[in-house]
């Protein structure tokens, strides 16, 4: 008796699975192809710059052609030169590796993380000639993506003197460029104020 | 209050305002979707093509068979697609997944969990993302909603011979009338904010200083929309919603949080309408909102205050967080994603402060009921409401009733099994992982935080959340297989119990309320329900929480 019940349950499940398979195949056409392709069509026609990665040329202008681009306005890239504003530390791959987006995932009490933060703080303080206590948190911590394109206005502020000196520009001019590339909170209350590092550096190159 | 706190509160207020604005209309719309006898013309064609009868009222056993049959082929189909990726178009040159990894991911996306052991940008091609993973984002969400609606029908119907609706019709309507149109609108909003949407491969560009960086492509906005709306959470890229191409601005961050909370917080309205008493929906919504607000307040405080050695050394809890979101925008996302079954992250949860990490873990252990995953949150909360009326009934010595249905021994047996299933999976899974070698080698941090990593992993899997304390190395056969079992059992055992309960309730004839009936729409009952939710979880998990996040917070 029990075995016939199991057999009939299995037969029922098979019948329902076949209906499920037909359903899944049609869903795959609708949701897996038609929907993303329709969205792609909308994006490519209506918002081509954003849909293709917010790419920028060396002069700061927008492009959708990767061969003309020096980066994406939304993705951090490494800047080590003293004439540039520096982004946040990155642990994505060997740094700013877009094929390995990641944070450190180190816990809040991890002694290695504390040591790394202290090292970074000392290095930034020395490079910028400021007191370690004035180094903001975003300068000494790795972001969750490793591709954070922005820094806090505080971190930008302590880099102004160095960049101005290296470029032989008046501090006021560099400050004005920073202000120009500082975004406030969206709608006044969403998120945090921030400075886009790539756009600011391209503007500096362009101005000088 | 400092200005930073005021801004954080204002950001939450914007979110609450938009959620409140759409609550009544969307709730009513969803009630119509699941109760209208009419099929759209396109749907009739759809049902003819797949040869199912959308009008046959199914008994709960048949409903469950259809659901399990659909889940079974979903797992197999996705498994095959992942294994054979290198033979498919748009693979971007990536190889097929290994067997353990493909099993884990197939189960993960079919169960609405979206636990990811792999990095999307380094392992998954565009076809697998669109036609494999994103399809399950839609249908697994629709399955959750269908089960919730079936349970609501159990309460709303009377003497129906255990008939609780038609799975194929519920599944189809959830997708075509709710999830798909909303996703299309959301995808466009996200594109405006800068989320990419193309079919290009990843190719190299030369940066300003002459380094090489891969420029990323992919149909991200379309996937991001349903990833949040369906409380799925599987990121296109490894950094998930912390990735600037998935979540570029504070505006898109708010859109994504809104999408996560939209359906879970609106379904109580649908429930109220379908049981013919909107006040019942308000009571459920009140409990969800109250628990959510408490968790959000504490987590936001923890992340903004930044206790712990590393945040103190840095000056703020910014490790693992993005500049554009900051501690407040990250805390809001973290609570939304763990209080639902989403599991998308816009910051590294492993690097949250000790109290913040403990709180998001607690949100999952609570069973993701405040407001919970799409559908799963509502049915989880309704099961606890049955527990609450049962306890109240014991106190006054009356046969407990909820919404006119008597809660007798068979009903309570199902409910008790439901309440025990997920905690058993979490605790047994964690216990095994911390004593066997293959489990121990995956742990990154020494001491209590290491236990938190493992506990978080099994809480996430069994509750179908999918977020992780990323320090845990979960891409090993041990974790892939055991997590897969936890996800599967954590999804379908509760669903089977809920449908059985729905069938029993639908068979009962409703009893009229008398002066002795406990009113279940009043604040008194809402308070009781919230208390029951916390006590059930508290008693189950206090020992292990004490050894993990509590010790950490105190050290």
Overview of the structural elements:
The complex is a heterodimer of chains A (208) and B (555). In chain A, 50% of the residues lie in helices and 6% in strands. Chain A contains 6 helices and 6 strands. Chain A has helices at residues 2-46, 48-51, 111-128, 153-167, 171-180, 197-207, and strands spanning 55-56, 62-63, 71-72, 150-151, 182-183, 194-196. In chain A, the strands form 2 sheets. A 3-stranded antiparallel sheet of chain A has the order 2-1-3, with no helix packed on it. Chain A has a 3-stranded antiparallel sheet with strand order 4-6-5. In chain A, helix 4 (153-167) packs across helix 5. Chain B is an all-alpha fold and 555 residues long. In chain B, strands 1-2 form a two-stranded antiparallel ribbon. The longest helix of chain B is centred in the N-terminal third of the chain and has 33 residues, at 3-35. The radius of gyration of chain B is 23 Å and the shape is globular.
